[in-house]
Amino acid sequence: MDRIHITGGTPLNGTIPISGAKNAALPLMIASLLTGDTLELANVPRLADIAALVRILGNHGVDHMVVGKRPGQTTETGQTIRLTASNVIDTTAPYELVSTMRASFWVIAPLLARFGEAKVSLPGGCAIGTRPVDLLLMALEKLGARIEIDGGYVVAKTKNGLRGAEIDFPKVTVGGTHVALMGAALAYGTTVIANAAREPEVVDLAECLIKMGARITGAGTPRIVVEGVARLNGARHEVLPDRIETGTYAMAVAMTGGDVILENTRADLLHSALDVLATTGAEITQVPEGIRVRRNGAGIAAVDVTTDPFPGFPTDLQAQFMALMTLAQGQSRIRETIFENRFMHVQELARLGAKIRLDGDLAIVEGVERLKGAPVMATDLRASVSLVIAGLAAEGETQINRVYHLDRGFEALEAKLGRCGARIERVRA
Ligand code: EPZ
Question: What is this structure's pTM?
Fold first, then answer.
């Protein structure tokens, strides 16, 4: 298995191009199942999760084409892909495929809305918690689907198509909102989605669906209204920048020191996280190319955070922020309210010399003066990258195992950091 070797202690200086958002690209690709026309998506990151979803969609009969390189494009400037679901031959998503990536469960909504049936494996547990799908199924039932669980599969059917309804989520769910949007887009009548997720990725999906002919208002607010249409058409859409990748590199600079421009990204996608970073002492400015993050030698101030649905502090940046706080001056309290088991990085950060105490959903981080490199590993994507950040700031060598987690969500990680002066390399197994 590949490993990443880091020799820490070098500040980051230069420019990092930010990729298209994985968590926007995935639902956008799934939305291709809503139409027999071609959906062209630009700025799609080259990631293992994207490749896995291409395989899953291919199993349903979706054709996939990668548009050739254009002038000025590098292997890091995102790819343009075309997806055409004109010959869907199978409305079943098998366990072997769905278990490789949870988000693929969302295919249930477009399959059901367009073909009246879908059989999709339950995704099962994952490293960051139980992550049930009850609210996704509730949304589909409200839209008139009949749902049964049979042999580990959700079997969903509708007799005469889905029907508009009032869907009131008792808890904010990104996946639930994606599923409700895709189902309602082709339902008969009006759907109101209350307590909808406001994440930028939800807005991106809604904007793409609108280009495909859907009638949606209110995306980005807690109340989305969808007037169903009989059919959707093809469209071209550019995936929005990855706010989690942006925040991750911003935290890396805040921790190692230096001066980096994060290119092709937008501050409004993660304002609360940037506000928190500024409070720790990093200088954050908007520049025409994107966002500039600077930190000089002055110490890192300790700040408390609580993860929350957007526009709150994202759970997908919690591990990275904890890495930063391990070197803060004083105590930081980090509360995780979205996932019940998202502290796997704590034990690994401790291997680098961090002082962290867990108390239920609260991590209490006592800043230390320095971290020292060590072999570490992690069991999810964001936890793994928190170890990269910590390794960059630690003295000596850090070796990160199970690199496949990073490949799921960070495009060209070593190249992007390496060009800014980081001493980081991949050792192929
Ligand atoms: C999305 O997951 C993201 N994944 C996650 O990113 C992200 O952490 C999460 O949203 C929260 O922002 C993708 O976009 C592919 P949720 P999702 O439904 O949609 C509970 C990463 O590292 N819940 O908003 O699965 C759930 O257990 C990943 O890129 C139910 O109880 O998350 C959680 O506590 C990890 N029942 C909360 O809601 C349900 O039916 C929010 O989950 C659904 C969710």
Answer: 0.97
Tens of pLDDT, residue by residue over 153-195, are: 999 999 999 999 999 999 999 999 999 999 999 999 999 999 9
Determine which one of 42, 67, 126, 350 is catalytic: 126
Atom of ligand 1 nearest to the CA of 178: 19
Ligand 1 atom with the smallest distance to the CA of 136 is 40
Angle at 413 between CA 407 and CA 414, to 5 degrees: 115
Instruction: Give the residues across from 39 on adjacent strands.
Output: 83, 235
Report the nearest-CA residue for atom 10 of ligand 1. 174
Instruction: Quote the domain boundaries for residue 280.
Output: 3-18+241-427
Closest by CA to 327, choosing from 284, 377, 386, is 386
pLDDT in tens, 209-248: 999 999 999 999 999 999 999 999 999 999 999 999 999 9
Whether residues 258 and 223 share a domain: the answer is no
Backbone angles phi, psi at 191, to 5 degrees: -115, 135
58 with 187, same domain: the answer is yes
Place of tokens 């909102």: 177
Does 223 share its domain with 331? no
131 is in an annotated binding site: yes
Nearest CA to ligand 1 atom 3: 23
Q: What is the CATH number of the domain that holds 263?
A: 3.65.10.10
Q: At a CB cut-off of 8 Å and minimum separation 6, what does 174 contact? A: 23, 197, 199, 201, 202, 309
| 102 annotated to bind ligand | yes
Q: Which atom of ligand 1 is nearest to the CA of 174?
A: 24
208 is catalytic: no
- The answer to whether 204 touches 241, Cβ cutoff 8 Å, is no
Pocket test for ligand 1, best of 49, 167, 174 (most atoms within 8 A of CB): 174
Cα of 137 from ligand 1 centre, angstroms: 14
Pair 56, 174 in one domain: yes
Whole-angstrom Cα distance, residue 82 to residue 41? 6
The number of distinct structural domains making up the chain is 2
248 and 275 in a single domain? The answer is: yes
Pocket residues for ligand 1 (CB within 6 Å)?
23, 26, 103, 129, 131-136, 171, 173-176, 315-316, 338-339, 381-382, 409
Query: Do 192 and 164 belong together in one domain?
Result: yes
Q: Check whether residue 300 and residue 357 sit in a common domain.
A: yes
